[in-house]
Amino acid sequence: MKTKPVIAAAATLVLAGALSACTGGGDDGGGQNNGGGADASNCTNTIPKPDLPVVTLWAWYPNSELVVDNFNEANDEVQVCWTNAGAGGDAYDKFQTAISAGTGAPDVMMVEADRIPAFQIQEALVDLSDLGYEDVKDNFSDGAWQDVSVGDGVYGAPIDGGPMGMIYRTDIFDEYGITPPTTWEEFEATAQQVKDAGGPVFASFAANQPAEVTALMYQNGAEPFTYDPANGGQIGINLNSPEIKEVLDYWDGLVEKELVGTEDQFTPEYIAGVIGGDYATYLSAAWAPGYLQGAGVGEGADAGVWAVAPMPQWDTSNPIAINWGGSAFVVSSQASDPELAAKVAFGVYADEASLDDGWQNQIIFPLNVNVLDSAEFQDYEVPFFSGQQANKEVYVPAANAYTGMVYTPLGQFYYSALTEQIARINEGQATGSEAADALQEAVVAYAEEQGFTVE
């Protein structure tokens, strides 16, 4: 059974993990409120069938209104009242306030997969295992379901993910006569070759990207956490394993040799460096082309120079696919009709038109296997990559091979602690192994303070 200190810890972690956000607006609509406390009389979208029961939805993707309109037009059982409550942290803060108050939550909400356990432990989410999961189970890989599961429960309907690849600049690779490295050993040797020839750093090891670094840990076979709420407040924490130390020591070495940069990513300065050719590669996810284009990459002197290759591996005979990011629709425990809300969670962003709009406009990388297996998706010549069939060559194989991660209610504190340790590595204050030991100590101590029993 969950203890109150553990539940309180989860609430604190959610509120501490705010991200930058945006808001949206539009026409008001109407409908019968059939669910949670969010107001279904003040929708951003117009509801075309107002006599049907209404499920409220918070979602922030740029094409959310189109997706909701597609669902409403096709559905004669339920209608969706959509609100953009802000992206990421803004929405989470509002949801947490509603959880604490016991009212005000939407029926369905978009949530990043790694945030699910912090809400689940507060009994704020509905287990979807018996509410339509079996009907759509085969539409997604085991890895996609693992990311939205907590123990034996399924708490999210997958939308998109971030299978990772190595984006690189063909002009820099051509100038220095190099090819995409297939192993991390080759990655370091190639980076050294470029540096010795007077070229740019090869990549970035950014302290503000702990989720990316966590994915790199998984690629080396690490298992940072074990967690099952059925075991009460027990949690397994293994952040200074040999596999994790090897990863952090490797990147520590690249930093020390000045083969990679240490600038924070997602900043104007970093983007200027990407455009200016300060980095030969960008290790990122399938959503990166859309993000980069939105930031102005590939529009000027750097147009037509981008390509993508599979991620380097520790062992090419045993390749491990990794993922960075991804979202799902969850059903709030405040929904008065969880079954109807689950129909929305599983049905919104599941029709062909919505999925096509998502990937064709590089808003999402869909995880639905009906899209991943389609010739149109696999053969798509990605404009950002000058017509390269990146889905077929890199992202679909990575998505299909990905086996998932274990997320816990400690996720946001862990990310903060890892950010601190990466900064210590980058500043020369700790080796990778020392940072791993400090990370283990900090997360274990915090977990115990919050009422967890560490295995």
TrEMBL record:
The organism's place on the tree of life at top rank: Bacteria
Annotated InterPro entries: Bact_solute-bd_prot1, SBP
Key words, A-Z: Signal
Pfam families linked: SBP_bac_8
Signal peptide: 1-21
Protein name, per record: ABC transporter substrate-binding protein
Lineage: Bacteria, Bacillati, Actinomycetota, Actinomycetes, Micrococcales
Organism for this UniProt entry: Microbacterium insulae
